[in-house]
Specification:
About 55% of the residues lie in helices and about 0% in strands. The radius of gyration is 28 Å and the shape is elongated. The C terminus is likely disordered.
């Protein structure tokens, strides 16, 4: 029985003991501490994280105590953001920022485990690829052939277009004239 209790009850001797008071901080209080500890962040990154936290995390989770956060609660938060029409990439970004905050709480001994582990995130949406038609490629080549003040094509782009222009004589005239 004692062996079972030792396995279930974390002990100070094993380094797995968590002071129950440690997780009583609210998410909002912990976010302030987390931001203060992020000396490596540039000002723009700090402002971006602060904005995400202020607009998307703290209004829904700010008053919750760290120890009361659950995987199910975070999964519902993710689902609510998608239901509100936010893009998958945006929801993933919000979750990542909250995950960074909670990761420090975990490493600081305020959480026994991360409630972020196992939360299913929306799949990243692939942007639809668009391709130039033959006519558009020829128009682009013609535009890059003209030198106008204030415009320039990066060296690699010029090289590609020069190569294209030199080989375009083998293209059918219908294509060069704008046919597809």
């Amino acid at each position: 029985m004692q062996r079972w209790l030792n396995g279930v009850m974390p002990a100070p001797e094993t380094g797995t003991y968590l002071d129950p008071r440690a997780g009583r901080l609210t998410v909002e209080e912990w976010v302030g501490r987390w931001l203060d500890s992020q000396a490596q962040l540039r000002l723009t990154a700090r402002a971006h994280y602060r904005s995400i936290l202020d607009v998307h995390v703290l209004p829904q989770r700010g008053d919750r105590r760290l120890m009361t956060l659950s995987r199910a609660g975070l999964q519902a938060w993710v689902a609510a953001q998608r239901a509100a029409g936010l893009a998958s990439a945006t929801v993933r970004k919000h979750f990542r920022v909250l995950g960074l905050v909670l990761d420090l709480a975990l490493r600081d001994g305020r959480l026994a485990r991360s409630p972020c582990t196992g939360v299913k995130l929306p799949r990243a949406e692939q942007a639809r690829r668009r391709y130039l038609t033959h006519r558009q490629v020829h128009l682009l080549a013609a535009e890059t052939d003209r030198s106008r003040p204030g415009t320039r094509l990066p060296y690699r782009g010029r090289e590609v277009m020069d190569s294209y222009r030199s080989s375009s004589s083998s293209w059918p005239t219908a294509v060069c004239a704008g046919g597809n």
